[in-house]
Fold this protein.
Amino acid sequence: MKKIGIVYDDIFAEHHTQGWFSHPECKERVLHTIDVLKEHEMYGKDHAENYVPIMPRDATFEELNWCHEQALIEWVKDAVSKSSEKRLEHMDGDTPVSPQSLNAALQAAGGNFEAIDKIMEGKINRAFVLCRPPGHHANKGRSRGFCLFNNIILATHYLTRKKGIKKVAIFDFDVHAGNGSEDLIWRGIPEGEVLFISSHQDPRAFYPFECHADEIGDGAQKGKIVNITYAPGSGDQCINLALDEIVSPLFREFKPEFILISAGFDAHHTDPIGGLGFTDQSYGNMINKLSPIADEFASGRMAATLEGGYNIDSIARSISNVISTMSTGKLIEDEDEFQEKSDRVEYTENVLIPKIQGFIAPYWKSI
Ligand SMILES: [Zn+2]
């Protein structure tokens, strides 16, 4: 049984997004998840001893500068200062900010740093950062797609620059491609050696319309950016194929010293935005495939940070499964069902995976 830190503060519910229209990236995502975690005695006054509540800290502007231009930081500050609870400002068409958004974003990035500190100090083994706003669409100069600053790449850089970690493997299982993360890694912005695998709904007809299967990086990074572009309707069998044929072999060959997860839950079959067929169990099952790799190469070290996921009930159940499997390997929610069509599985097995393997095979012995 491993000790899992759960990084949360109510500031993450103070980033308000509801203007004239309702917005899927809402505070209830974290508030309801906390309620469900309390029901499972994973958080709150009755939490079991293998779950440790952790308060985030502020990231500094200097730390944000590792990944983001000063002009973007000033833009966010300015937009937040002009916003009011009645009149939100926007970084792009779907990325609103409100008076507490900058404070929430600094705590989201800093919450990831705090999780890393506690793991590296040996106080916990792993962590889940239950933060808003999310980060994986933000790049050097732009906040977009509900994201202000790129929490996971800031965390990557924190590990390699401040914590002596040389090799970080990142798995992004949000339904949307982690295009901001890919962009920052492609530019070599986080120090150290980074393997980045994003699995997502095929972006040829889905936001962010980037991170196609043939994008594998450049220069020293070539072959260490991998995009698994699921067909709509893909579910557990497709996930298992992708994990067994691509993610696990690459992670094993890479031998990461730390595993980071961009944990978005909008690939769930009930999600109002995504078009994939993941279940409550899918997320815990993916953790169970990565856990032995973390144990073998990274002293068990693993941290997940919240990205998307817009069905309030399924995100809470799925996160409970992620945190539980991180600690014990056991699912606590296991009755969710999705009927995956056989043609999706055949496409994944016979077309998609061989195609991706073809792109990256020159760079990996295990492929
Ligand atoms: Zn998403």
About this structure: The mean pLDDT is 97.
